[in-house]
What we know:
CATH class of the largest domain: Mainly Alpha
CATH topology of the largest domain: Hypothetical protein af1432
Order of helices and strands: HEEEHHEEHEEEHHHHHHHHHHH
Strand order of the largest sheet: 5-4-8-7-6
Number of helices: 15
Structural class: alpha+beta
Strand content: 5-15%
Shape: flat
Amino acid sequence: MGKSINESVLIPADRLRKILYAMAGSWGFEIGFNDAADRRGKLPLGKSTRVIELDRFGQSISLTGPADLMDRMADSIVQLADTISEQERENLSLTEEIVERYQQLSLLFDMSDRLGAARDNQSRMKAILETAIDAVGAEGGCLMIKGSQEQWCWINREKLESEKLARLASKTMDHRKHSVEENRHCALPLTVSLGNTIGSLVLGPKTKAVYRSGDIKILSTLVAYAALLLESGRLYEDLESLFFSTIKSMIEAVDAKDPSTRGHSERVRRYSHIIGEGLGFKPDELKSLELAALLHDVGKIGLPDIILNNEKEYLSENQWELVRMHPEIGVAILSHVAQLKSILPAIGQHHERFDGQGYPNGIDGENITLFARIIAVADSFDAMTMNRTYRSRFSLDKALSELSQNSGSQFDPQLVNLFIANINKTEIMLDV
């Protein structure tokens, strides 16, 4: 899961350098990293060099510039380093939360795939048990559901202490709490609404190591959803609802880095839906589009707060270089979830332009995936109709006019026309 947030934080070297290069350059200084001992020769008149240790980042820098500004520059760098360090600690905490959410999401996708082939309750129980075993690397286990009659599902029963596991299953259901016995057997109750327990999941020894708190946490997520699915019988509908709830909770974690744009991803989802409907997308296509729209800015978790909370209309070139990285950061984060691979191009390309002048790769026209072209329109419309620290939001008419003026250059003309034709037919109200 990564480092504890109590440990020292090491910001990636390229990011630290870009931020400090930009700051030093604006004051007329040169900056070098870990190479002060290699400097030779005389310095120009009026200039001096100082070595500064940035212990929190495991870096030492050499600073060369005007002697009369050296103290102020050095103090400013140390203060900036302290600020960045605190921000990185917060980022790490948010990142750990998001990684945990992705693990849960991947687990739900895995269970969803297996449940898709299930045609009866026994098959569904087997799908859930297989997912649990694979999630923690257990040798086998059992799932017991108690209704009008008990139902049992076993995997690798012959390799397990089956009588012991069966007793543990019944005990766990009666006591309604999880347990780990001798670090070899793990048991969790299946609890539904109003605290009712409908069964239990018991796993045998792990093939490697022992059960730890992380295993209990991920299995708790699985049994919570599995219990609901087994009780309700609404397999796909409930799983989809829980899945999108998990996605939204991840987006809220991203929003926490930039409160001024809170709700942006949800609005982009709604605007993208309008365009998708206008194109006649099927329900499954709409769901994929909405998922891509919700996650389009997840890569911003990797940007420093000093950029996200910028109060100026324009960013420096160094800051822009960092901003242009967020589509690729998003793709890198989501690429670990196999079931999201189909929407990765949309996330990586949502800042490409129809005329090829966008980023990160400068592709153009229909070479940009359709989902990305849709999200580009929705994203820009929402950005224009949000209040920013450096300007007031655009009116609906002005925002639509801007889309029209950039149709064919920044945006796909067909999608702009569809959006304009359909936005007024909806009940969506712009936030004041």
